[in-house]
């Protein structure tokens, strides 16, 4: 459903979704179609992206990642050379995503961004869904182990994660490691793989076998992941060299975890994870979370979470230190760039409309989900649908006046 927002003062709703009310000056709900995000490939990816180039003319994604603070470690400096050698074919690069929820969250976004940088520089990105891993839980020894998922939940989560990736990166190759793990027999695994590593270590780092399989069967020669995945990645490169050949061109690259300047994780709010799926977190809420980034973090996040030119980011950083800087200019740009990348232009437009609706005197059309999302940010109340008959125009404006003075009477609304 759609509604018109004209002031940030008051949101008036009820529990029956077909009749949302957003006041003060809007009186009836119109049956306009719900806004949907654009399911086409992100328009950013369709444009020409300038990458750093070496003297040979080959786009060097490793140098880009290093300049932007997205490079933590390399298993070999040969990867840097491979990225700049025009005589070599494009690399095939994969990143793993576990289907532990119906959507990826903001913490997973760095993996998608690094894949996108490889894609923009002419290489072939691949996403690996950890369907096998999710079926057996997490043997990593963490204090909070990953629960084993039933098949229906796993199927739903796998579909949701795949949709997240496709919506952002386009129709890249998406694989599921369950497809080969279901064919692996225990004794064969111990015979073929166990003799090259301690069995306990290999079970704890099953992605090492994933890299071996992908290297042999899919021609994938680079695995990327967060810095906490370094052990898994090196297990894979070592296994490839032990089983196949010592000079195998298999590489690993890690990027830093998404942390705030105080060392805490970035990507969680008081309400939980910042999901990438619009059905689990509205583009408006996503935008507002990024808009709330403190000054101490915003420049670094512009480097690692956006594809903005580094000179432009540096200019913004210099402006922040000047006397004429408008507060939150950098935060606004961060929120716009990341929301557009994740939710497309339609999602960003929806977020901006919702933000505009909270401005005094605004005249903005919103769908029901967006109204629900912004209701937490303004004084609001609701009434049961079966009591709609006694709602009068006078009562509506009386409620509005009460909420307008809520700052004088705490707890009234």
Automatic annotation (TrEMBL):
Key words, A-Z: Aminoacyl-tRNA synthetase, ATP-binding, Ligase, Nucleotide-binding, Protein biosynthesis
EC number(s) recorded for this UniProt protein: 6.1.1.1
One GO cellular component term: mitochondrion
MF (Gene Ontology): ATP binding; tyrosine-tRNA ligase activity
Reactions performed catalytically: tRNA(Tyr) + L-tyrosine + ATP = L-tyrosyl-tRNA(Tyr) + AMP + diphosphate + H(+)
BP terms from Gene Ontology: post-embryonic development; reproductive structure development; tyrosyl-tRNA aminoacylation
Family named by the database record: Belongs to the class-I aminoacyl-tRNA synthetase family.
Identification of the protein by name: Tyrosine--tRNA ligase
Organism the protein comes from: Prunus yedoensis var. nudiflora
């Amino acid at each position: 459903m759609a509604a018109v927002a004209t002031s940030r003062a008051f949101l008036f709703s009820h529990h029956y979704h077909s009749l949302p009310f957003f006041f003060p000056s809007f009186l009836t709900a119109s049956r306009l179609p719900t806004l949907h995000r654009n399911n086409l490939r992100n328009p950013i990816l369709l444009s020409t992206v300038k990458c750093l180039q070496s003297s040979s003319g080959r786009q060097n994604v490793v140098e880009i990642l290093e300049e932007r603070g997205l490079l933590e470690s390399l298993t070999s400096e040969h990867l840097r050379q491979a990225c700049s050698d025009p005589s070599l074919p494009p690399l095939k690069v994969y990143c793993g995503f576990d289907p532990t929820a119906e959507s990826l969250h903001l913490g997973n976004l760095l993996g998608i961004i690094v894949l996108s940088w490889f894609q923009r520089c002419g290489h072939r990105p691949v996403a690996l869904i950890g369907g096998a891993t999710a079926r057996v839980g997490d043997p990593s020894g963490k204090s909070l182990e990953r629960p084993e998922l039933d098949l229906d939940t796993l199927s739903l989560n796998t579909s949701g994660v795949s949709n997240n990736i496709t919506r952002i990166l386009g129709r890249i190759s998406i694989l599921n490691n369950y497809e080969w793990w279901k064919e692996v027999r225990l004794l064969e695994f111990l015979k073929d793989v166990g003799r090259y590593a301690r069995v306990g270590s290999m079970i704890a780092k099953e992605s090492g076998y994933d890299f071996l399989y992908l290297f042999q069967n899919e021609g994938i020669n680079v695995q990327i992941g967060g810095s906490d995945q370094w052990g898994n990645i090196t297990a894979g490169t070592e296994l490839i060299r032990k089983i196949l050949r010592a000079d195998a061109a298999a590489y690993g690259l890690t990027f830093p975890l998404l942390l705030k300047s105080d060392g805490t994780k970035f990507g969680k709010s008081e309400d939980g994870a910042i999901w990438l799926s619009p059905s689990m977190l509205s583009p408006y809420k996503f935008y507002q979370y990024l808009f709330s980034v403190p000054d101490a973090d915003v420049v670094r996040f512009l480097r690692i979470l956006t594809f903005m030119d580094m000179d432009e980011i540096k200019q913004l950083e210099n402006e922040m230190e000047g006397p004429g800087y408008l507060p939150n200019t950098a935060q606004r740009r961060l929120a716009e760039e990341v929301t557009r990348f994740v939710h497309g232009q339609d999602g960003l437009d929806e977020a901006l409309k919702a933000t505009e609706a909270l401005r005094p005197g605004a005249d903005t059309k919103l769908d029901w989900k967006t109204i629900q999302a912004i209701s937490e940010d303004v004084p609001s109340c609701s009434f049961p649908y079966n009591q709609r008959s006694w709602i009068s125009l006078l009562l509506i404006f009386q409620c509005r006046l009460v909420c307008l003075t809520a700052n004088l009477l705490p707890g009234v609304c």
